[in-house]
Amino acid sequence: MRTLRSIVIGIDFSDTSRVALEHAVRIAGWSGAALHAVHIVDTGDYPIPTAHLTDLQRGIRAGLREETLQQWSSFARGVPGGDDLPLDVDFGSRFGGIYQRVVEQRADLLVLGAVGQARPNVGLGTLASGCIRGAPADVLVVRDDFRGPFRTVVVGVDFSPTSRRALEAAGMLAANEAATLRAVFVAPAGRDAEMLPPPEVEQDLELFTRAATDAWPGLDVRCDVYPHKGHRSGILEFATLVHGDIVVIGTRGRTNLRDVMLGSTAEKVLRDSLIAVWACKPAEVASGQA
Description:
alpha/beta, 12 strands
């Protein structure tokens, strides 16, 4: 049974970050997970160790930290449940600082807001993309146009072990948010019709999905085989058709550079999705063994 014990939320004081905080507080509430908020003052990829700072530099950092904490007090006050949450303020590269907190807190989930230039497709931004590839935890990226519990959770299924983990995460989310879970296998269509899966794929999908979600009895689960000419776009199109609020997708693993191999499907979903995305890591990555 999938559980959450520790959640890290990255704060940059944007509107999207506020929505991310709302989601993180709510998820921590029903999961019982410890919630850790962190803001990294970006000083570059090669931060100066505190012991090597001059008195002037220490004074500047102390002032920046105090200003940030004052801003946090006002920022968190507007989020139910966020008033008493402390903020960890540090200096360095944003990715490096958040990565360190994920490791230190043994986080199961990292929550971030999507940041970009165009709307409504605001994109992921470099921080979210880097964390999805490198952080040893699942990553939930939210948009600033959806607040409150998720009502329709869409999860892409390809029968892989990571797909099983994605189903477990989606089941946990849907059960606790009183949402409908839509498990979808995208089948090739059009020119690739000769590659259509055998008729028993519907039964296989049902069995695979039930086995991964049977820890939540009473969960509203619906399984769909969705014909589409492009597997990657098919998940997003299906999510639109069923009015999905979030897509849960599995990533592949790690390369010899120790980055997550997202795979073409996950790349497409993460790049083009207009709704929240939960990127589920392979078990060996989430446990720090890869």
